[in-house]
Design goal:
Largest sheet: none
Strand content: under 5%
Radius of gyration: 18 Å
Structural class: mainly alpha
Helix content: over 70%
Shape: elongated
Order of helices and strands: HHHH
Number of helices: 4
């Protein structure tokens, strides 16, 4: 597995997430409307944005951990059993720290 390409892939996704999280934060910080019906709709939208933001923040943390593993030379090694993680799994889930068996 080419570690440099994996690192670039992770850094690109990290940049996307950071930008999107910033836009979510700005949208959530907007002054709410005074109209009660609009306020209810806005609140529902805010709840969806908050949930999306939490999911993306968690992915961002996993990416940072994967980048740390690349630097430490442990990327691609299962954190639970110590076996190599299949390249196909890393291609699909580049931030994973578990092999297929341990993830199940």
């Amino acid at each position: 597995m080419n570690m440099q390409s994996q690192k670039e892939k992770l850094l690109a996704r990290r940049g996307e997430l950071a930008g999107h999280l910033e836009s979510i934060e700005k949208e959530l910080d907007e002054t709410p409307t005074k109209d009660m019906e609009d306020l209810s709709t806005e609140r529902q939208g805010d709840e969806v944005l908050e949930a999306l933001g939490h999911a993306e923040f968690n992915e961002l943390k996993r990416i940072d951990l994967a980048l740390d593993r690349i630097e430490a030379g442990t990327y691609g090694i299962c954190a639970t059993c110590g076996d190599p993680i299949a390249e196909a799994r890393l291609a699909l889930l580049p931030d994973t720290q578990l092999c297929k068996t341990c993830a199940a």
